[in-house]
User: Fold this.
Amino acid sequence: MHPKRVYPLRFGSLAAMSVNETTHPDNFAWNRQVYHRLKLALSLSLRRQIFLAVCDDLNLRNQVAARLHSTLAYPVGQVLYQASNTQEASTPAYPRLVTLRLNLSDPNLIAQINQWLSSYPPPIIGASKDNPGRPLPVPAFQIVGVEQLTRQPVAIQRLFLHYLRLTEQQLSSFESSLLLWVPRPWLYAIQQSAPQFWRYRTGVFVFAGEPTPTIQNKSSPERFSGSRNLELGNVEQSVLEESVIQDDFDFPTQTSVNRGHKPQEVPPSKSEILTNKPLQEESTDKASTSEISLPQHTSHISKELTELVLATINTTIAEDDEQNLQVKQILEEIEELHSQQASGVKLAVAYHRLGNLYRLRIEQGQSILENLMVAILAYQESITHDENSPQVPDTLNDLGTLYWMLYRTPPNSEEGQAYIEQGIEFYHLALKLISSESHPETYARVQNNLGTAYGDLARFTNPGENWQQAVIAYSEALSLRTAEMEPLKYAACQNNLGTAYWHLAQYNQPVEHLKKAIGAYKLALVHYSSEQEPLKYGMIQNNIGTAYWNIAQYEQPAENLHFAVDAYREALKYRTPGNAPPACAATQNNLGTAYWHLANQSQTSKDERQKLLGQCISSYEEALDLAHSLSGMPLSFDVFATHNNLGLAHFQLATDQYFNGDKANRSKHLEAALDNHLQALNGMSKQPEAYQTTFAYVVKTIRAFHNELGIQGKIWLCLKFLVNCYQIFCRSCNE
Assistant:
């Protein structure tokens, strides 16, 4: 099955959208679409636009607002590569989007915006003796904090609505766009009590989410959603200088064993994370309490960055106190540098230190959303203040990887395409600043990361095209990463290239790309010792077997299936029930499928066929025994489909005209066929087509029992069928 295609969203008329249509069965998908429309609306940089974003979930609101700021405030690509004559020029220090928290003592939106603009007027660019220059565009503004009005006196709430009613008079001099975040109750209040403001709205963007309780502990900062630890899989190190080998891909068993089924999609390789060495921690006395306050005045540091930092430093873990104190000291230093109007170079260094400190937390396993966002914002600030720093390429690479990690951070997988695309953009920016001749190590690293990102993007859109891009990127990395210089990195990259070729073969030129996949896998094997890296060695052998199985569907089936069997057997020497039970079960399942196909080749002799079917049955039984012993552990194959395939193998062996067993053996195999088909039937109730196919196998087995063993056998088998059905029904009731 091809990955689900995600089509681009179009920006249309938003004002007509009903704000009452808020019940959405898939909130992630809905919110992702709304976010993209909102981001597009703001990125158009039109004047006098009023947008309302409706969100009752403060965690979600904070997350989306921070993402908008991270993406739009300082667009790094425009900062680094803007043409000098464009009307949309940027400078590193002037934002395109400003986020303000509503002033609760005087909630006048326009006045608050004008006050910010008077303090930070658009800088003049292009000035010379003969040219007065021109100011940069006025930034857009997003306002948060309206929900706090609920806790204010009624007079303040009425004053806010009064100011909104006066907006019509102020719009004539308003040169920007405004995004106002409101919860649903305040949206209704604006509709009813400030119709003038409501009439001038450009668009309404409604996010789905549960309302946040109005009573909160004021000492506890608002935290973003998705603060669970990032699941990094079976990574042994806390930080990866290099991309680790791709996890293997395995056959999914099908409702029937037949030609042409592809292995399951490979879980992505872990990115070559965060390549700069972390800043050495200075010796600091630990605080007596784990709650550390930020500097009182941080007017020059963005609100988003300050609030994100605040959400990360209030912790009860004593070991974090030293890092938290360092964070506070760096923020104080940044604020002081801003106040002194220090050079961009000094500010960039300070912001980079802040990013490194949070990168260290991420390396230590604290890959929560807030830490990722602080690192991203700090690194982006660093680049915008000093775009000529020699560290910029590595920082851009780290930004790409941090966005990739955002995709991996729950609950962001549903909106992962936007994060992956942002990461790819940063990788490409890094490659524009360096060449393979000037920075061979960094160039290879970024290309390897780019291959991983394109592989993940293929899960969302244009799989054939994106896997082709992954192949190109891995190949570029390997042109610089030789086996003599870095054998393990070379081997990991070759494995990733093999996996990219395997996926590409599912969309075009299958035989050519599968052969290239096998070639890459074999080059990787040369540099992995089966003694020192048994699991990786076994995994690549499994991948080779899968590639040979695929080629057998196109040419020289018997020869390629024998190669597949040999590779799977070799893999099982290292993927054992003791050291890797899920992987062992997957390879046994693959081996069973290869045996089945080999048994059904026209040139296979009758004796060999029965032997191969027996081996097929043994492999499937090994896979199922392991799978059932691993209750709760994720598996890369469908257990119920394997039961079905095992039933088919038993059935074929029992009904083979050359079967040399007696009636007792035939009966044994038919009983096993029926039992496994019923097991499969039990798990296919939500798959009507598969259920009907499997039910047909049950009927076919009963008929075969009658043909082979007569009426008494048929009666006995029907009774067994009823007993099995009753047992399955009882298990279903208990579950």
Observations:
- The first strand starts at residue 49 and ends at 54.
- The longest helix spans residues 688-734.
